[in-house]
Amino acid sequence: MLSSQSKPQRQYPRSHEPIVWSLFGAGGMVVAFLLPAAVLITGFIAPLGVAELPILSYSLALEFCRSWWGSLFILVCIVLPAFHAAHRLYHGMHDLHLRGANWLMLTVFYGGASGLACATLFYLWILRH
Amino acid sequence: MNIAAPSADIMKVTVQRYRPEQDNEPWLQHYQVPFSADTSVLEALQHIKDHLDPSLSFRWSCRMAICGSCGFMINGVPKLGCKAFLRDYSELHIAALDNFPIERDLISDISGFVENLETIKPYIIRDDPQELDTSQPINQAFIQTPAELSLYQQFSQCINCGLCYAACPQFGRNPDFLGPAALALASRYNRDSRDQGQEQRALFLNAEEGVWSCTFVGYCSEVCPKQVDPAAAINQGKAASTTDYMLNLLSLSKSGEKE
Ligand code: SF4
Ligand code: FES
């Protein structure tokens, strides 16, 4: 077997970072590919009347939001970027040497993103009822 | 016109001094060093030691960016002294590598870095250790194709100079972080077709002190004199660690649960 170690061995517990890192990565993809198009359509093209898009009439838009696909789209567009931002801020604060107690940081950033996720789910649920 | 005569330009060189037996903290000493177009920072230090001040201490050996012993902060940037030239500067400020304790003058104590290198088991591991028993006659060749070699070759170019550790803000804040070169070396062995030690190394890589302390600053890859690109190795390691984490959740993999 391997040579025996004389020093006491350090412990290397598994990090749970993969969970938030996956959400961060997925959020990055959404921010890069999905969000610009969504902002362009709902924030500029529709309100400025650049193009007549029937899907953007109130009734059709509401129907879209109530559909499973629409709900999923809204959830993805809001929740994943929120986790992306939370992760960035959490580590950014560390890099800037602005760091409070870890539980507080986790609660504020990832808790905030989770809160937003719950609020989104709740709102989507209200829309359907 | 005097083209043939070597120019006897003089540069002001500021060197960080620290002699533990008499100094409470590092201080700066100034020297005037003659140089020409091909004078390296290492040669400037050698000039100081040979002609101006024999008490100055610094490490060097190969003078050709191979041994990795002449890393300094040169005007605030981690560089090899033998690979940086006075012609590129108007004034020089040389200090010991950041993020390491100073042993003396320009000599950093890199023992923490060396321990981190040892931690990741930088050698070929086989499930059957008998295969590596050098007391037995070799009866098996571990053949490797050029394609298999190319998977890890880049990460095997490291000369352990420690520049990436001086560049890494995360190592600066937490010396338990295994750091760029050690993680790149772990990747080098994990990618080696002859190696079977991925599971043993996953224990370290999956930890906070492993790939997860990195926030992809990327400065390590910028300063590396051998284009090892440790930042890429670490981020590919994050993807691997995430897969391992998910598989572990599905309890398809047992790595990380044992000692
Ligand atoms: S990865 Fe590059 S900078 Fe880091 S120790 Fe190796 S050669 Fe030096
Ligand atoms: S003296 Fe060997 S790398 Fe500079």
Automatic annotation (TrEMBL), chain A:
Keywords: Cell membrane, Membrane, Transmembrane, Transmembrane helix. It is found in: Cell membrane. Signal peptide: none annotated. Its main location: membrane. Pfam families: Fumarate_red_D. The keyword Transmembrane applies. Anchors the catalytic components of the fumarate reductase complex to the cell membrane, binds quinones. Belongs to the FrdD family. Part of an enzyme complex containing four subunits: a flavoprotein (FrdA), an iron-sulfur protein (FrdB), and two hydrophobic anchor proteins (FrdC and FrdD). This is Fumarate reductase subunit D.
From TrEMBL, chain B:
SUPFAM superfamilies: 2Fe-2S ferredoxin-like, alpha-helical ferredoxin. Its EC number is 1.3.5.1. Pathway: Carbohydrate metabolism; tricarboxylic acid cycle; fumarate from succinate (bacterial route): step 1/1. Residues 11-100 form the 2Fe-2S ferredoxin-type domain. It catalyses: a menaquinone + succinate = a menaquinol + fumarate. Residues 149-178 form the 4Fe-4S ferredoxin-type domain. Binds 1 [2Fe-2S] cluster. Binds 1 [3Fe-4S] cluster. The keyword Isomerase does not apply. Keywords: 2Fe-2S, 3Fe-4S, 4Fe-4S, Iron, Iron-sulfur, Metal-binding, Oxidoreductase, Tricarboxylic acid cycle. InterPro entries: 2Fe-2S_ferredoxin-like_sf (IPR036010), 2Fe-2S_ferredoxin-type (IPR001041), 2Fe2S_fd_BS (IPR006058), 4Fe4S_Fe-S-bd (IPR017896), 4Fe4S_Fe_S_CS (IPR017900), Beta-grasp_dom_sf (IPR012675), Helical_ferredxn (IPR009051), SDH/FRD_Iron-Sulfur (IPR050573). Its cofactor is [2Fe-2S] cluster; [3Fe-4S] cluster; [4Fe-4S] cluster. Belongs to the succinate dehydrogenase/fumarate reductase iron-sulfur protein family. NCBIfam families: dhsB, PRK05950.1, PRK12385.1. This is Fumarate reductase iron-sulfur subunit. It comes from Candidatus Litorirhabdus singularis.
